[in-house]
Amino acid sequence: MAVPAADNADATSDVDKVAAAIIASADIAPAPKRLALGSDAYAQIKAALTDRLSALNATKELSFATDKTAQV
C-alpha cells in the first residue's frame, strides 16, 4: 500500500497528528497491538475484521459440535 505524500490533498490523515498519535501510543498500558491511524484505516480494518467474524460465526455450530459435550 502506497503512503501518500505529506502534501497530498487526497490524504485523509494529518502527518503531524499521525506522529503525535504514535508517540502518545507509547504511554498506553497495555500497549495497543494495532493502531489504526486515520478514519480510512479504521474503516478498512473494521470491515476486514467484521468479515472475518462473520465467517467464524457461520461455523459456530459445527465448531461446537466437536466438543466432548456439545454446547451451542
User: Portion of residues in helices?
Assistant: 40-55%
Question: How is the biggest beta sheet arranged?
Answer: none
Q: Which ranges are low-confidence, i.e. pLDDT below 50, for 5 or more consecutive residues?
A: none
Please give the number of β-strands: 0
**N-to-C series of helices and strands:** HHH
Rg over CA atoms, rounded to whole Å, is 19 Å
- Overall body shape: elongated
Please indicate the percent range of residues in DSSP E strands (runs of 2 or more).
Answer: under 5%
Q: What structural class do the secondary elements suggest?
A: mainly alpha
- Gap from first CA to last CA: 40 Å
Task: Give an overview in words.
The chain has 3 helices and no strands. It has helices at 15-25, 39-58, 60-64. The longest helix is centred in the last third of the chain and has 20 residues, at 39-58. It starts with 14 loop residues before the first helix and ends in an 8-residue tail after the last helix.
Layout of secondary structure:
Elements: H1 15-25, H2 39-58, H3 60-64
List the main descriptive attributes of the protein structure presented here:
72 residues; mainly alpha
Write a brief caption for the model.
The protein has 72 residues and is mainly alpha-helical. The protein has helices spanning 15-25, 39-58, 60-64.
